[in-house]
Amino acid sequence: MFQLPSLPDSRFEDFVDRKTREAAAADLAPYVTDSAEARPDLVAVGNAWSRSLFDGDFYLSALPDTSRPACNLVFVQSRDGNTGAPNPSALGGGETDKHLIYEGLSRVAADAVLAGVETVREGRLMFSVWHPELVRLRASLGKPRHPVQVVATLRGIAFDRGLLFNSPDVRIVLLTIGACARLMDKDLDTRPWITPVVMDRPDDLPRAFAELRRMGLERVSVVGGRKIATQLIDAALVQDVYLTTSPRDGGEPNTPMYPRRLDGHLVVRKRGTGPDTGVVFDHTVL
């Protein structure tokens, strides 16, 4: 008989409630537009609430084709270009970036959010939209309450430690390689809501993305880490980069989102106001 693993002390419902209350209580200062280019190949997303804070629609690239999902990268960097930090909020992107963009518009239309196992902190985090206005916007787009959680790992996972891997209400895809998948066989057998996608090589991301599309995942938002972001860019799997730059230095030294100059076109630039003065948000299409 199938038996669910024991849930961790902090239940999934408590986590969702805490994140929702935190987002709803946040005092968000609006962004203002420095530049924006109208492009017919971009998809506009927003509602009255988000447009009042973002100073207009948020844009996504159209689906590239039927063989792979559209993909965006979402990063916060310090003024001196570092993205490495235990908590992205510590880099100084501000509350509007956190609640409106990072945990909001960048993933409101996403079918899945992809992160490395270090980013999800062994399953202690999950990535969704939390502000009630964004939850309503996501529902209006015909999306389920939470995106599928795609976790990339090249080593075993301590499944019993994390909330994420023990919550049947959240669909999970593990992006891994054969040797690692075999280490997790026993844990995966007791968690039918977790689906492994096994790559032949760690850099076989194009085939893995094709499998995600076959699973019905048309849009993927990537929130970390830097290594997989670089691999995705180099494999030409990324269309949109959403990068927020803090007005202060910080983060782990020498941790840029991408080690080389991005070959892309800036289509939107916003800047923060009030407590977020000095924050700059860029949307670049690759």
Can you tell me about this structure?
The protein is of the alpha/beta class and 286 residues long. The chain has one domain (14-285): Dihydrofolate Reductase, subunit A (3-Layer(aba) Sandwich). Helix content is 25%, strand content 24%. It contains eight helices and twelve strands. The chain has helices at 12-25, 48-54, 95-105, 132-140, 178-183, 185-189, 205-214, 226-234, and strands at residues 32-36, 42-45, 58-61, 70-77, 112-116, 148-152, 172-177, 194-199, 219-224, 240-245, 265-271, 280-285. A ten-stranded mixed sheet has the order 1-11-12-10-4-9-5-6-7-8. A two-stranded antiparallel ribbon has the order 2-3. Strand 5, helix 4 (132-140) and strand 6 form a beta-alpha-beta unit. The radius of gyration is 18 Å and the shape is globular. The chain starts with 11 loop residues before the first helix and ends with a strand.
User: Per DSSP, what share of the residues sits in E-state strands of 2 or more residues?
Assistant: 15-25%
Quick one: CATH superfamily? Dihydrofolate Reductase, subunit A
- State the low-pLDDT regions, or none: 1-9
Q: What integer is the average pLDDT?
A: 92
